[in-house]
Design goal:
Layout lengths: L7 H18 L15 H20 L1
Length: about 60
């Protein structure tokens, strides 16, 4: 940024040029396999326990 004049347009051009260079250098990693999601009894219990306060509020309304 030192050789760039301190005016909005030259600074914006310098930044956009840098962004373009960085984007050209970027190489995405190989995709990985998605994690397998399972429904466990602990998950069911957590959802049920978190629904109890809502059910109590709705029953009292």
């Amino acid at each position: 940024m030192r050789p760039v004049r301190k005016r909005p347009l030259p600074v914006a051009d310098a930044v956009l040029g840098w962004v373009r260079l960085e984007a050209d250098r970027f190489r995405a990693a190989e995709p990985t396999r998605a994690a397998r999601v399972r429904l466990r009894p602990r998950d069911v219990a957590l959802v049920a326990l978190s629904a109890i306060p809502v059910a109590a509020l709705l029953a009292g309304a």
